[in-house]
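Folds abound. A case:
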Amino acid sequence: MKITLGIDIGATTVKIVGFDKDEIICPMRFANTEPNKSAIDAFDSFIEKAGILLSDIEKIVLTGVGASYFNEGIYSVKTYIADELFCIGNGAMYVTDEKSAFVASVGTGTCFIKADKKGFKHCGGSGVGGGTIRGLSKLILDKDDFDEALHLANAGKLHNVDLFIGDISKKNVGSMGSEITASNFGNIKETANSSDIALGIFNMVFQTVGMLAKFCFEAETPESITVIGSTVENDVAKLCFKAFSEFTGIEYNIPEKAAFVTAIGAAIAQEDELTEI
């Protein structure tokens, strides 16, 4: 057994996957409290949970913003760094089994990548992402935990906080039907509760990501956009992007293991895409 580990060290979480002969092994995620320590702790936990030996690991490939904190390998294993934006595209093509991909990677912020077998293009980015959800949830709802805010959002109703086309017009406005958002948080009712507000926060972020992705890739006329990241691995995201697909005519797809796509892209990277440390 010769396993390659891909470790994506993001701003708030560390994602780790093993890869052995096209088999994804034991994907895991951890909070990132300190890049070096968190990544090494993730490595230790992976070995224990997967039931493997240090000698079973052929190499480790680090990516993500936290990879920049490493200037030496992990233990005695050959350790490399791969460009995060390359890994996003590389991983997205692998999990979708496509030769090209248009990707919205929703982490603490969001970046937009076009990738194919020739390489990748960074098409743009936004400071709106999972960090926005966390920050607004703490500021407005006094919820410092993403999962707590998500739990609230699952019971929310957007019509108690958002303004819709149907609220201001008896007819469709151009191609926009009555259920299209006219203004996020533009119609907060007296009956609005914390669940409604939480859903409004999630929805506003996901709608912003969806529209920015459409703008970034518009010249390419994509039929589908792959949306990845820990932030979108939930039913609220799936419902929001499904509604956005119906509005735009573009399929917004959240793949299985969406949180681990970048780590997968690192694990399967070829030697010429790696820098040894």
User: Anything to note?
Assistant: DSSP finds eight helices and 13 strands in the chain. The helical segments are 35-50, 84-96, 130-141, 146-153, 165-168, 194-217, 235-248, 261-267. Residues 194-217 form the longest helix (24 residues). The mean pLDDT is 94.
